[in-house]
Specification:
Distance between the termini: 58 Å
Strand order of the largest sheet: 4-3-2-1-5-6
Oligomer: single chain
Largest sheet: 6 strands, mixed
Strand content: 15-25%
Helix content: 25-40%
Number of strands: 28
């Protein structure tokens, strides 16, 4: 039945595409529709209302772009989702997977240029595509004689109809100063100082985590992300907040005023009309400051000649944590480590002593209960990736009742999980084997660890972009012809999004990366995956700190990483013969820190199992 529903949806969509009026040419329609995995704020994670790719294709990953023509339906996604997409396509025979990152996969625009009939019209929702992506498509399609057309109606929504989930509009709460470390008024003043330097009459804030950050508000409109749907337009005198005022709790409203900001509230839907009014009032070369990551529709409202298109000052401000945020992140990771140590100790005991069957789903649930015991816990930071054997090769695998299998001592177990605490956001991956791993599994695990160790230990110049560090994590895999098809690291928010722009470590450059600076948090997560066999990933969160070097070339300043994740790495999965003395010393020091930090928090009879496991897993290793 589900497959027939998928085919029906595609047929209805193609009928709507054919009926679109193009430049007054009756019956022309559009020859291709682009569907992005975005909401109007270009969020990574989506509320159910915005999961349009999932609705039309069945694919439920967080990243992808679909192109539908009268005869084809294609989905571009990266290596995290190859296996998942093929398993979820509805109907599978109607969809073609385009594997981004492989040499023989054309880009979306290259495919369109090569496959469209002459003088074709390509349609897309301008609210759901960033200006950067729109500009690239427009330039290339126009050069090839085609037209990129913003659609007045979202065709997926028309097919979805009354069954489309209602948008979430949950209450907005304040983030207290003890966790934010800086009042909203100071953040607003810093933005206005930057606006003056750039002759910006207004700053348009569209990314939901930026809106939450500058206001010191938090919400729950998107699962796992403490954000809410709103826009902010900041001028030299006023802060305009586009959200129904009734959604903002009285405590949040009071805190914002007490922190020096008197917001002017507008209905959420008024953003476009208001922005056009601001743009029309610009004089003497005044500009509207808007990020290229914002939607093409909002850029159109600004007018091309009146834009200052650049990363917002909030994005960089948010990435560089203040002292309160840094200490909160460290404290959150210590409490999170307690929960993970309890879970892994319990899980090993269940399996080795055959105390009962633990599955991927029940294991993830148990881990969440251990996290719920920790102070300041709010919720998970993403769905727990609890994956056994072949499921571990599905990089963003989500266990369900249909796919659930027992965790045993026969296969590798990969657990990638994180939590939202009021003082920080966590994300940690560990891979374990509760039986006897194969030699190949041990070699792969060891090379992944060597990559993580290499990146964590490196010293690099101040302001270097994360893209330049990516090779360090891969070289020990590359040297034997292995690799992984995802980035090595992402920024992490402070009780905000677990994947935080603009920084990251990847083979792909981050266009807005301002360069690494002290106070930034990034993940360090190399891996290796054998399709239909196993997956291995090790992930720590690293804090960028100043490095002590004997020299300081051109007074540049040099940096390194401080690991804030404190969860043991399973040493029995290591082939010690492949490790250098420096790597052994690194791991022994790391485990000594895990032991000394967590032991005081695991006292008492109820923690005996966890403490015993911690002591066992942190024993020093040697050749």
């Amino acid at each position: 039945m589900a497959q027939r529903n998928g085919a029906i949806r595609l047929a209805k969509l193609r009928g709507l595409m054919e009926a679109v009026q193009v430049a007054g040419i009756k019956g022309k329609g559009i020859q291709a529709l682009i569907v992005s995995s975005d909401d109007p704020h270009q969020s990574e994670y989506l509320r159910e209302h915005d999961k349009r790719i999932c609705f039309i294709s069945g694919f439920n990953g967080t990243y992808g772009t679909a192109i539908i023509t009268p005869s084809k339906a294609l989905l571009w996604t990266d290596g995290r989702y190859y296996v998942q997409a093929l398993a979820e396509f509805d109907p599978p025979e109607a969809w073609t997977l385009m594997k981004e990152g492989l040499l023989d996969t054309p880009t979306r625009v290259a495919w369109l240029v090569s496959n469209l009939p002459p003088k074709s019209t390509v349609g897309a929702d301008a609210n759901l595509m960033s200006y950067t992506e729109w500009a690239v498509l427009h330039t290339n399609l126009t050069a090839a004689g085609h037209c990129l057309m913003p659609l007045e109606e979202n065709l997926i929504d028309k097919v979805w109809g009354n069954e489309q989930p209602v948008p979430t509009n949950n209450i907005v709460l304040p983030q207290q100063l003890q966790f934010s470390g800086r009042i909203a008024g100071e953040k607003v003043k810093s933005c206005r100082d930057e606006m003056k330097k750039n002759n910006a009459k207004a700053l348009v804030i569209t990314a939901l985590d930026e809106v939450a950050y500058i206001l010191n508000f938090r919400g729950s409109d998107i699962p796992y992300n403490p954000v809410f749907f709103a826009y902010v337009i900041l001028t030299s005198d006023d802060l305009h907040l586009f959200i129904e005022k009734s959604r903002v709790s009285e405590k949040a409203q009071e805190q914002l005023i007490n922190e020096g900001v008197n917001a002017i509230y507008h209905p959420y839907e008024d953003i476009h009309v208001f922005l056009k009014q601001i743009a029309n009032s610009c004089t003497n070369g005044e500009k509207i400051w808007i990020s290229n990551s914002s939607s093409y529709a909002l850029h159109t409202d600004c007018g091309e000649a009146k834009k200052h298109a650049a990363i917002t000052p909030i994005n960089i401000m948010k990435a560089i944590k203040n002292n309160v945020e840094m200490q909160g992140m460290k404290a959150a990771h210590i409490r999170d480590a307690v929960a993970l140590v309890k879970y892994f100790a319990w899980l090993e005991d269940q399996i080795k002593n055959q105390r009962g069957t633990v599955t991927e789903v029940s294991g993830a649930t148990k881990l969440e209960t251990f996290r719920q015991e920790q102070e300041h816990f709010v919720g998970l930071s993403f769905p727990t990736i609890s994956s056994v054997g072949p499921h571990g090769a599905i990089i963003h695998y989500l266990p369900t009742s249909k796919t659930d299998v027992p965790i045993t001592d026969k296969e590798l177990y990969l657990c990638d999980s994180g939590a939202q605490y009021k003082d920080g956001t966590t994300d940690v991956t560990r891979t374990l084997h509760f039986g006897t791993p194969t030699n190949f599994e041990r070699e792969c695990f060891t090379r992944v660890f060597k990559g993580q160790c290499r990146l964590s230990s490196t010293i690099f110049p101040l302001m270097i972009q994360g893209n330049y560090l990516d090779t360090l994590a891969r070289e020990n895999l590359w040297s034997v012809g292995l690799n992984y098809l995802h980035g090595t690291g992402h920024g992490v928010g402070s009780y905000l999004n677990v994947h935080e722009e603009p920084i990251g470590i990847s083979w792909r450059p981050y266009p807005d990366d301002p360069g690494l600076q002290p106070g930034m948090f990034l993940s360090n997560e190399p891996g290796y995956y054998e399709d239909e066999k196993f997956g291995i990933r090790l992930e720590n969160i690293e804090l960028v700190v100043k490095a002590n070097t004997p020299y300081n070339y051109k007074n540049r300043g040099f940096l390194t990483f401080e690991t804030v994740t404190l969860v043991p790495i399973q040493t029995k999965l290591l082939d010690v013969s492949l490790l250098t003395d420096a790597e052994i010393e690194y791991l022994n020091k790391y485990h000594a820190k895990c032991l000394s930090t967590l032991t005081p928090l695991l006292q008492g009879p109820h923690n005996a199992q966890a403490l015993e496991w911690l002591q066992k897993e942190t024993r020093p290793i040697s050749k």
